[in-house]
């Protein structure tokens, strides 16, 4: 079968001689119609970071990335529940940048697609479910001001879900260095957009939200929650989003949700955590049921994922697809492994 094979940082190439998988016990095989390039895939592509977690290794040793995909069940193994050949499904598991991929049957990795949702939309289910978990962990209260760092597909999903769930936050500020992504963030539900390339992001947020003073800490912007979907990119200039988040949160009761991956270790001024009694929460994935919830938000029309899909490529152009996703202007790049 055809698959994208990762060889080294900056080098990923198509192959047409990868062995087609079989459904093992508790698995189905999915014919992949659409697979997204994730931010974590880009970390691996740039630096090799987290490589061991982001590929499916075949028996011959090929490393196939891709973990956000949708397609059709073509084979069902023993102990695979009531799944049937021909069902449309969303899958989450390594190896999705291939014509076929094995997927374990459990609610975290396999869920049926509702009618009216396309394969392209469904390939963005996992990022939206990630956003649902971040919002659940953040426990945003009505009127609280929120900052979202990084408005690629993950951050935009946070904004879409925040609006769709009717949480009633105060100011919702998107921060990114891409003007096109910031424009999309405003359409997705942000009330304000801040580009650090244009000036001091901390001052810009303070001007929007106002400041508050507290015992033992300097005056700070009145931000209750920062959701960090950017993480740490070695090539980016200026303070890391987590550092800005600690300075940006209000004097007490602030929370930062860390989702974006880190390409390297980071020196950081941690004193604001003590002075402001900040809660730092990591978020990795989603809870059972949030994949299905994400699909229902799409099926109901409460979120529009189609507008976030900026580029589509056949598997043969996987190298160009990764370069496009990393170019700073793309929102979501999809691969179509079975495109004619």
The quaternary structure here is single chain
| N-to-C CA distance | 14 Å
The low-confidence parts are: none
Number of domains: 2
Strand content: 25-35%
Order of helices and strands: EEEHEEEEEEHHEHEHEHEEEHEHEHEHE
Structural class: alpha/beta
Keywords: Metal-binding, Oxidoreductase, Zinc
Cofactor: Zn(2+)
Pfam families: ADH_N (PF08240), ADH_zinc_N (PF00107)
GO molecular function: oxidoreductase activity, acting on the CH-OH group of donors, NAD or NADP as acceptor; zinc ion binding
Please describe what this structure looks like:
With 340 residues, the protein is α/β, with parallel strands linked by helices. It has helices at residues 39-47, 119-122, 125-138, 153-164, 179-188, 201-209, 241-248, 271-276, 290-299, 318-325; strands at 3-8, 11-15, 27-36, 55-57, 63-65, 68-76, 88-91, 100-104, 110-112, 146-149, 172-175, 192-194, 211-214, 217-221, 225-228, 255-258, 279-282, 309-314, 332-336. The chain has two domains: 3-124 and 305-336, Quinone Oxidoreductase, Chain A, domain 1; 127-282, Rossmann fold (3-Layer(aba) Sandwich). It is built from ten helices and 19 strands. The strands form five sheets. Strands 3, 6, 7, 8, 9, 18 and 19 form a seven-stranded mixed β-sheet that branches. A six-stranded parallel β-sheet has the order 12-11-10-15-16-17, sandwiched between helices. The mean pLDDT is 95. It comes from Pseudoduganella namucuonensis.
């Amino acid at each position: 079968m055809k698959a994208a094979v990762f060889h080294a940082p900056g080098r990923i190439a198509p192959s047409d001689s990868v062995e087609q998988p079989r459904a093992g016990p508790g698995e189905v095989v999915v014919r992949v119609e659409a697979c997204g390039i994730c931010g974590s895939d880009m970390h691996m592509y740039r630096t090799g970071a987290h490589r061991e977690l982001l590929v499916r290794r075949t028996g011959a040793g090929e490393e196939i990335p891709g973990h956000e995909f949708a397609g059709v069940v073509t084979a069902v193994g023993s102990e695979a529940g009531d799944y049937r050949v021909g069902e449309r499904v969303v899958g989450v598991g390594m190896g999705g940048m291939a014509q076929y991929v094995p997927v374990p049957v459990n609610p975290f990795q396999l869920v049926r697609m509702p009618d009216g949702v396309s394969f392209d939309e469904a390939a963005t289910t996992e990022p939206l479910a990630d956003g649902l978990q971040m919002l659940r962990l953040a426990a945003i209260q009505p009127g609280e001001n929120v900052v979202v760092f990084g408005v690629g597909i993950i951050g935009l999903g946070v904004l879409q879900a925040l609006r769709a769930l009717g949480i009633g936050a105060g100011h919702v500020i998107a921060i990114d260095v891409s003007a096109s992504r910031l424009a999309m963030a405003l359409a997705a539900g942000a009330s304000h957009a801040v580009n650090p390339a244009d000036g001091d992001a901390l001052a810009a947020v303070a001007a929007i939200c106002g400041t508050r003073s507290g015992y033992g800490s300097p005056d700070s912007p009145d931000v209750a929650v920062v959701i960090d979907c950017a993480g740490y990119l070695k090539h980016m200039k200026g303070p890391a989003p987590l550092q800005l988040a600690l300075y940006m949160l209000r004097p007490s009761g602030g929370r930062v949700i860390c989702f974006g991956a880190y390409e390297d270790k980071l020196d950081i001024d941690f004193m604001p955590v003590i002075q402001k009694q900040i809660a730092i929460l990591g978020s990795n994935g989603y809870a059972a049921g949030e994949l299905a919830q994400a699909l229902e938000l799409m099926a109901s029309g409460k979120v529009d994922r189609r507008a976030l899909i900026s580029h589509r490529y056949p598997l043969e152009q996987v190298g160009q697809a990764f370069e496009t996703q990393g170019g700073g202007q793309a929102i979501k790049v999809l691969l179509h492994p079975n495109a004619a």
